[in-house]
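Note to self: keep these together.
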Amino acid sequence: MIPTVISLPRTKAEVGPRGPGAIYQNVDGRFEVLALITNPSEAAQLLHRDSARWALIVRDTLRPDGQPFAVGSVWTTSDYLIRPAKTTAPAFAWAPAA
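Structure:
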């Protein structure tokens, strides 16, 4: 998998520091970022929103049975980073189920 490059400043601000491998927490839980999707058509399909430009695949690390799911919420002051994103490409590629 090739590391994702975010080219639009607005998208970069919305995603924040949540690259693959990052762990962040907010009032909804603690999430590990498994993948960052920057292809608008893929993001729209994952989030069921035509206007989506990006999506994150995350897993809630506070739930032992936490299953990966897509989110499109922007980075806010109520989010905080626990572990920064990995700088190398992950050893696996995220592939949605057919």
